[in-house]
Design goal:
The structure holds three protein chains of three kinds. Helices cover about 25% and strands about 30% of the residues of chain A. Chain A has eight helices and 20 strands. In chain A, the strands form four sheets. Chain A has a six-stranded mixed beta sheet, sandwiched between helices. Chain B contains twelve helices and two strands; from the N terminus they run H-E-E-H-H-H-H-H-H-H-H-H-H-H. Chain B has helices at about 10-40, 55-65, 65-100, 105-110, 120-130, 135-145, 155-185, 185-195, 200-230, 230-240, 250-260, 265-295; strands at about 40-45, 50-55. Chain C is mostly helical. Chain C has one domain: Orthogonal Bundle (MetI-like fold), CATH 1.10.3720.10. In chain C, helix 1 crosses helix 17 (about 275-295) and helix 4 (about 65-100) packs across helix 11. The two termini of chain C are about 30 Å apart. The interface of A and C includes residues 47, 72 and 102 of A. Chain A: InterPro entries: AAA+_ATPase, ABC_transporter-like_ATP-bd, ABC_transporter-like_CS, ABC_transpr_MalK-like, ABC_transpr_MalK/UgpC-like, Mo/tungstate-bd_C_term_dom, NA-bd_OB-fold, OB_MalK-like. Chain A: GO terms for molecular function: ATP binding. Chain A: Keywords: ATP-binding, Nucleotide-binding, Transport. Chain A: This is Sn-glycerol-3-phosphate ABC transporter ATP-binding protein UgpC.
């Protein structure tokens, strides 16, 4: 299959710049997922790869060939749209075979390919139906079938699962992953859903405000978020942030508001630096209240069954602790928390970069 | 408005696609309209060989001629009479059809069909009913009420005849729009009013009518445009502007002065006046359309 | 029903029946007249029930003044105008919504401006153009001094070309009525509601602009095309002013004009009402049948074309 190289790609609409020089290398066979909040430029980037948007600056190459000036059909790509974009007046078979018919493929070839792809996706029974007669999940499969049938070098997915309900989304996610392995294709998927992103990606690309924030495996990105933005964006429970300062010896932290965190002997950051400390709720454990330690008064408790989310009021912004489900707490009681030094994420207060 | 993604690499094709329409427009619309504008400021000799530029003389002649003022007056009567009766009848039919349960589709069909009748034939059908000698309605008027009815001689009778014929054809149009507007009113509103104790008549006055007033205004404009421009056939076939200029509406006069009177300058000046009138009416229509869009949001 | 109001319902039905009778009265009288002999029709009072002369009257009507030929003409004109308007407006709407090119907005406003120039207000010069549509070309050649060189170079007789006329021809009946701002805007409106992603999908599938128009836009416009066809067919069939001017021969005019000329031909003599009405019924039948049979489409077309 193919590689996709994105070099210093920029995009402006008139004076408004939406992409500020993006550099990415997507390797053959990779499932690359671009994750970011809406308006971060991720869809624009994908549409530029597809050839649906002009490239303002920089270069995109597919399989080593610069495609900046090529029409979408000359790029050997296929795309699955968020709303599927099925032709409403064509049957499922006609929808899937449209590109082959445009290319004047022999009738027998078309029939065989449609049957083959329909078999893979399990939509063989609806080939004669119109898209309006299908459920959301079935439409999704047809949209994928339309992409697969062309055997492209690169598959592009633009939020393909976001129009499905939660249960179906989970099912289609695993199917998408299985399909990727089976087709041994290079895939690029754009989403704002981090669970979807984490579960599908070999490589996760986090974008914000027209820039790439971090590239890595989902595990790397979760364990070592490169910026404050990534730290806040990744993880199903939002990370707690505290402003503070590293002590002169670099071995302890004093948080705004008086609490102190010790580094357990090891160096935890550059000495005498203004920082933002991030701690995931599940890295915190409730403990008896101690003077000078991190803690607060119980404000409210969310019982999610598998975990209890305890909101503590520390007199500042407050923070959340993920406690075991059997935790019993008195109303408005004071609690302290324990945290291990290795679970602290330190970011430079000025630049937001990881320290 | 244009599609975000478009075929911007196919510019020549775009011109090719537009060419047929533009060609027809240029030859049969813009060129003649420009000629009308030019001729409105010139006087031709009787053989049409030479023309002299005379500035606003033609307009002065038009606007000072008693015939033209008569024509304006007749147009005002004709269009207000036609509009009022067609809109009212359309509204009445729509309200009644919307209300009844049984026979709805039959009633609807019987009201709609006159739309398909050519204006001239509408005129002929009504002339037959109103004919002074053997028209059924004319006879009834004469024998029942002692009215000596004769649209061929009496100007008022002729005006009434053309109004009836013109309005009859337009009722179906108004009916369709009013019925659509009535059916678009949420039933919950009517039900709420009924629970508040409003009876059917009260509900119509205080709830239904205000809600369909945008449609009413729109139809008033459309009907005036219809009465001004689309009724030529009725006048031409029934009265030829007569008797004695009693039904000589503006559009008919442009035709009569140009083709029968062969006074191009005078006819063109009238054309230009009419164009200004249409521009005004179109502007009103679009102002309204903007408003209607807002209502829809 | 919100409440039970049997009396009000009854009043509604009575009013509706009275109204419908009034609306249908002219048709009923035409039908009666068309089924009697002329002396019967001219009786005072006229018979109130249909007679049995319909067939004879229809035959006489068809024989008089070339009505059969004129009905065919009407069909050709209304089909021509309908097909022409739809083709021209769909192509223009496609160009102004899906292409970016210089003068796009100019084209849009030019089409819009024709709303303000109905044929009734520019009737005399339009007639002059139709009489000699290429006269402007001759004038242009004269002004630029190209006529002489062109004639000697190509051997064409420019004078003959310039004198070409549309009077008494199908082209003359149809062409000037073929431009349509309303239909263009209708299709533009429709295209704007078609999701952007369909074009993107088609582009990725490799469709050229014309394939996209034929394979995607045209099938998706089908209901609007049907609705518009009903309206335009009626419009074309019932044309009056233009065919009246552009045709002089009975064999080239439309049925509507032919019949109205029979009425005004002899104003002093008593018109042959029975055959006239038979003719009127024949002429009215096609458009009425179209509207009645395609009622749903007709209503849609009417409402759509005013948006």
């Amino acid at each position: 299959m193919a590689t996709v190289d994105i070099r210093k790609v920029e995009k402006s609409y008139g004076p408004a710049k939406v992409l500020h020089g993006v550099d990415l290398e997507i390797r053959h066979g990779e499932f690359a997922v671009i994750l970011g909040p809406s308006g971060c430029g991720k869809s624009t980037l994908l549409r530029m790869i597809a050839g649906l948007e002009e490239i303002t600056g920089g270069e995109i190459a597919i399989d080593g060939r610069v495609v900046n000036r090529l029409e979408p059909r000359e790029r050997d790509i296929a795309m699955v749209f968020q709303n599927y974009a099925l032709y409403p007046h064509m049957s499922v078979a006609e929808n899937m075979s449209y590109s082959l018919r445009i290319a004047h493929a022999p009738k027998q070839t078309i029939r065989d390919k449609v049957a083959g792809v329909a078999g893979i996706l399990g939509i063989g029974d609806f080939l004669a139906r119109k898209p309006t007669q299908l459920s959301g999940g079935q439409r999704q499969r047809v949209a994928m079938g339309r992409a697969i049938i062309r055997e492209p070098k690169v598959f592009l997915f633009d939020e393909p699962l976001s129009n499905l309900d939660a249960k179906l989304r989970h099912q289609m996610r695993t199917e998408l992953k299985r399909l990727h392995l089976r087709l041994d294709a290079t895939s690029i998927l754009v989403t704002h859903d981090q669970v979807e992103a984490m579960s599908l990606a070999n490589r996760l690309i986090v974008m914000n405000a027209g820039r790439v924030e971090q590239v890595g495996t989902p595990g790397e990105v979760y364990a070592r978020p490169a910026t404050l933005f990534v730290a806040g964006f990744i993880g199903s429970l939002p990370m707690n942030f505290f402003k503070g300062k590293v002590a002169d010896d670099g071995r302890s932290l004093s948080l705004d508001g008086g609490a102190a965190l010790a580094g357990e002997g090891a160096q935890i950051g550059p000495p005498d630096r203004e920082v933002v400390v991030g701690v995931r709720p599940d890295a915190l454990a409730l403990a008896p209240s101690t003077a000078g330690g991190l803690g607060g008064r119980v404000e409210l408790v969310e019982d999610l069954g598998s975990v209890k989310l305890v909101h503590l009021d520390d007199g500042r912004d407050g923070f959340v602790v993920a406690a075991p489900p059997d935790t019993e707490l008195g109303e408005a009681t004071e609690h302290g928390v324990k945290v291990r030094a290795k679970d602290l994420h330190l970011f430079d207060a000025a630049s937001g970069r990881r320290l | 408005m244009i599609k975000r993604v478009n075929f911007q690499r196919h510019k020549p094709l775009a011109f090719l696609l537009l060419a047929p329409q533009m060609l027809v427009l240029a030859i049969f619309v813009f060129w003649p309209a420009a000629q009308a504008l030019y001729q409105a400021f010139t006087v031709s000799d009787p053989f049409g060989q030479r023309s002299t530029f005379v500035w606003f003389d033609n307009f002065r002649d038009v606007l000072t001629s008693p015939e033209y003022f008569n024509s304006i007056y007749r147009t005002a009567i004709f269009s207000s009479g036609t509009t009022a009766s067609a809109v009212l009848a359309g509204l009445a039919f729509a309200v009644l059809v919307d209300r009844v349960v049984r026979g709805k589709s039959v009633y609807r069909l019987l009201v709609i069909w006159p739309y398909a009748v050519a204006p001239v034939l509408a005129g002929v059908l009504w002339l037959f009913l109103f004919h002074p000698i053997y028209g059924a309605i004319a006879l009834m008027l004469k024998q029942g009420f002692g009215v000596a009815w004769n649209p061929l001689l009496d100007g008022n009778d002729a005006m009434l005849l053309v109004i009836v014929a013109a309005a009859w054809k337009q009722v179906s149009y108004n009916f369709v729009f009013f019925l659509a507007a009535l059916q678009a009113i949420p039933r919950s509103l009517i039900e709420a009013a009924a629970i508040d104790g409003a009876g059917p008549v009260r509900r119509f006055v205080s709830i239904v009518f205000p809600l369909i007033s945008p449609t009413t205004f729109f139809l008033l404009v459309i009907n005036v445009v219809y009465a001004f421009f689309d009724t030529f056939g009725i006048i031409h076939a029934l009265t030829q502007g007569g008797p004695g200029g009693a039904t000589d509406i503006l559009v008919y006069k442009v035709y009569a002065d140009g083709f029968l009177g062969l006074d191009l300058g005078l006819s063109s000046a009238q054309s230009v006046i009419l164009m200004i009138l249409v521009i005004g009416l179109t502007a009103v229509q679009f102002r309204f359309l903007e408003r209607r869009v807002k209502y829809a949001q | 029903m919100i409440e039970r109001t049997p009396w009000l319902d009854l009043v509604c039905h009575i009013l509706l029946i009275a109204g419908v009778v009034a609306v249908c009265l002219p048709l009923y009288y035409a039908l009666i007249a068309a089924t009697h002999t002329l002396p019967d029709v001219l009786q005072v009072p006229m018979p109130l029930t249909p007679g049995n002369e319909l067939w004879t009257n229809l035959k006489t009507a068809m024989a008089r003044g070339d009505l059969g030929r004129q009905l065919v003409n009407s069909l050709i004109v209304s089909v021509g105008v309908t097909v022409g308007k739809i083709a021209l407006s769909i192509l223009s709407a496609f160009a102004i919504t899906y292409f970016r090119f210089p003068f796009r907005m100019t084209a849009f406003w030019l089409i819009f401006a024709t709303l303000m120039l109905p044929i009734e207000v520019r009737i005399v010069p339009t007639y002059a153009v139709a009489a000699h549509p290429l006269q402007g070309l001759g004038w242009l050649l004269d002004q630029t001094g190209l006529r002489g060189p062109l004639e000697s170079l190509t051997g064409w007789n420019v004078e003959a070309v310039v004198k070409w006329s549309l009077l008494d021809s199908y082209a003359g009946l149809i062409l000037p009525l073929m431009a349509s701002a309303t239909a263009t805007f209708l299709f533009r409106q429709l295209f704007l509601t078609i999701p952007e992603e369909l074009l993107e999908a088609a582009k990725i599938d490799g469709a050229s602009p014309m394939r996209f128009l034929i394979d995607v836009l045209w099938p998706m416009s089908r209901t609007n095309v049907v609705a518009l066809t009903v309206i335009l067919f009626v419009f074309g069939w019932n044309q009056y002013l233009w065919p009246l001017l552009i045709t002089t021969e009975a064999s080239m005019t439309t049925a509507v004009i032919g019949l109205s000329k029979q009425i005004s031909a002899a104003p002093e003599a008593v018109p042959k009402w029975n055959t006239l009405m038979a003719g009127a019924l024949l002429i009215t039948l096609p458009p009425v049948m179209v509207v009645v049979a395609l009622q749903r489409w007709f209503v849609k077309g009417l409402v759509d074309s005013e948006k």
